[in-house]
Write a structure and sequence with these properties.
By secondary structure, the protein is an all-beta fold. Helices cover about 0% and strands about 35% of the residues. It has strands at about 25-30, 35-40, 45-50, 55-60, 80, 85, 95-100, 105-110. The protein has a four-stranded antiparallel sheet with strand order 1-8-3-6, with no helix packed on it. The chain is globular and about 50 Å long. The model has no long low-confidence stretch (mean pLDDT about 90).
């Protein structure tokens, strides 16, 4: 798996703002309002989530719950809407994904 942070001279200036294309990309198809748990590949430290619709995401375990919000939640248990690029928590084994409507996208991983 390619590294997200590169060595000098690629880690300076403008190049540091744009990671290289990953060699570990998952194509994802989400059914409407259906939880999908995707195992995080070994060695992954960063992920970019890109979808053609609104997707909620949360890093967790194989049994982590993620529901679409029906009311305001302020206890910290919510999920991120269209999270973009994220650093993966060390304890996370799965990305939990859910969309209100069917959509397609990709998960791009780096070490």
């Amino acid at each position: 798996m390619l590294a997200f942070h590169e060595e000098y001279p690629l880690n300076s200036g403008r190049l540091a703002q744009a990671p290289q294309f990953s060699d570990t990309i998952y194509d994802i198809v989400l059914a409407a309002d259906t939880l999908l748990r995707v195992a995080i590949p070994a060695g992954a430290r960063f992920v970019s989530l890109s979808f053609d619709g609104d997707v909620r995401g949360k890093a967790g375990l194989v049994d982590t719950a993620l529901t679409l919000p029906a009311a305001t939640v302020t206890d910290g248990s919510g999920s991120a809407l269209n999270p973009g690029v994220r650093r993966l928590p060390a304890a996370a084994t799965h990305l939990c994904l859910r969309a209100a409507t069917a959509c397609k996208g990709s998960l791009e991983y780096w070490g």
